[in-house]
């Protein structure tokens, strides 16, 4: 999958911007604050219906404006070509379009254009709390498994309804007993489906993670993971559902007191280890950085192997804090990606025209006849170099 044309209007510091992207590597350089990240964040909007930088759509609108618009023309092997658009207006919210037809649900967009983002923020995956790791896992699975996405959305809806009942009960079980039992069963069935899918994905993902960590680190340390959920072992979905129901009974009094659902996949944890060391608790800054990179490269490998269309890879200022040796190692790892790649960088120093001649630099493995280098200044984009004409 690749994006051929990207158009922005009133998106962050971009007033009117349009770029024609290369099918291989697209390098975007410019000073901090110039609008580099905004370009790849706009692509992320078209793939996932949200920003990977900002917490809300209202913060994306250019100062002094009331709306933003992003549009992209995509091409892939399954869907020959199509256009995705995102419109947001203050007071009216966000709408997504595919070929000018509005999507009924934003979730209908997920998986249409697979995407992987690598940025310094990835350190949160190993350093911060379980919410970050659950979000990473949910996003990864949702792009390859639409059924999982449906289960996840239904589970969240059931949990909201169940929490509302707990809040209305005033601590009295008799008031909501009959109603809650119905929601308990739905919660357990959807939750069991989610847990089973997560467990299956993590089992496969662990192998990709081990491979990618060796690649980026050059070390023989073995990364592993442990999935902590409502049970250590279970058989089929029916057995896991009954385990879930028993766990709900065990915490009933606490739930009535706290007025919220205390058992389920929304409280799962994924613990990462390097050999036998819990990396969140004891990992060094360098180990956190390498482990988080390996996680995203493993995600890229999963998509490459399991999807019909190659994912788009977005790298935001990834090399800013790496030494030259680690930069070269990561570039070689990225060169295996045969799909479209976008890299943002504040400094041009690590790059030269050789990167675009397919001599082993990032994107060289794509087999593409065109890579492009864009520069950005105060929301204005210029084409600096393209492989086709060796500089313009």
Largest sheet: 6 strands, antiparallel
The rounded Rg comes to 23 Å
Mean pLDDT: 90
CATH architecture of the domain at 1-114 and 311-392: 3-Layer(aba) Sandwich
Which shape, going by the Cα principal axes?
A: globular
In CATH terms, the superfamily of the domain at 1-114 and 311-392 is: P-loop containing nucleotide triphosphate hydrolases
* Helical content class: 40-55%
Q: Can you give a write-up of this model?
A:
The chain has 10 helices and 15 strands. The protein is an alpha/beta fold and 392 residues long. It has a domain of 196 residues: Rossmann fold (3-Layer(aba) Sandwich). Helix 5 crosses helix 9 and helix 5 crosses helix 10. It is globular. About 3% of the residues have low confidence.
Write a short abstract of this structure.
This protein is of the alpha/beta class and 392 residues long. The protein has ten helices and 15 strands.
Per-chain topology:
Layout: E1 2-11, E2 14-20, E3 25-29, H1 36-48, E4 67-75, E5 81-89, E6 93-98, E7 101-102, E8 115-118, H2 124-127, H3 130-142, H4 146-169, H5 173-217, E9 223-228, H6 237-250, H7 252-258, E10 269-274, E11 277-278, H8 279-282, H9 285-306, E12 312-316, H10 324-334, E13 341-345, E14 372-377, E15 380-386
Parallel strand pairs: 3-13, 3-14, 8-12, 12-13
Antiparallel strand pairs: 1-2, 1-4, 4-5, 5-6, 6-7, 9-10, 10-11, 14-15
Helix pairs in contact: 4-5, 5-6, 5-9, 5-10
């Amino acid at each position: 999958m690749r994006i051929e044309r990207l158009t922005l209007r009133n998106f962050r510091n971009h007033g009117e911007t349009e770029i024609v992207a290369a099918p291989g590597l697209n390098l975007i350089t410019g000073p901090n604050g110039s609008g580099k990240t905004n370009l790849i964040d706009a692509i992320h909007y078209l793939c996932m219906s949200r920003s990977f930088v900002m917490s809300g759509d209202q913060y994306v609108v250019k100062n002094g404006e009331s709306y933003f618009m992003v549009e992209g023309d995509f091409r892939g092997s399954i869907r020959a070509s199509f256009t995705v658009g995102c419109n947001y207006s203050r007071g009216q919210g966000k709408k997504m379009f595919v070929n000018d037809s509005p999507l009924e649900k934003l979730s209908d967009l997920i998986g249409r254009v697979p995407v992987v983002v690598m940025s310094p923020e990835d350190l949160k995956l190993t350093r911060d709390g379980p919410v970050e790791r659950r979000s990473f896992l949910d996003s990864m699975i949702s792009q390859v498994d639409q059924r999982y996405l449906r289960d996840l959305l239904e589970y969240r809806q059931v949990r909201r309804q169940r929490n509302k009942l707990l809040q209305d009960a005033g601590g009295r079980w008799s008031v909501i007993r009959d109603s809650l039992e119905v929601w308990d069963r739905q919660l357990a069935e959807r939750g069991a489906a989610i847990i089973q899918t997560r467990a299956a994905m993590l089992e496969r993902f662990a192998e990709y993670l081990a491979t990618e960590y060796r690649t980026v680190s050059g070390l023989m340390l073995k990364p592993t993971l442990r999935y902590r959920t409502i049970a250590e072992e279970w058989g089929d979905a029916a057995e896991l559902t009954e385990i879930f129901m028993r766990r709900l009974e065990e915490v009933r009094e606490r739930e009535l007191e706290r007025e919220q659902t205390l058992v389920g996949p929304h409280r799962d944890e994924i613990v990462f280890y390097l050999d036998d060391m819990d990396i969140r608790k004891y990992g060094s800054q360098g180990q956190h950085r390498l482990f988080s990179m390996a996680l995203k490269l493993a995600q890229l490998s999963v998509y490459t192997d399991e999807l019909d269309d190659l994912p788009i890879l977005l790298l935001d200022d990834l090399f800013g804090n790496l030494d030259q040796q680690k930069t070269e190692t990561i570039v070689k790892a990225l060169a295996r990606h045969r799909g479209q790649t976008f890299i943002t960088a504040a400094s041009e120093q690590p790059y030269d025209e050789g990167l675009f001649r397919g001599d082993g630099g990032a994107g060289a493995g794509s087999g593409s006849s065109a890579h492009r280098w864009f520069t950005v200044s105060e929301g204005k984009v210029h084409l600096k170099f393209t492989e086709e004409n060796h500089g313009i």
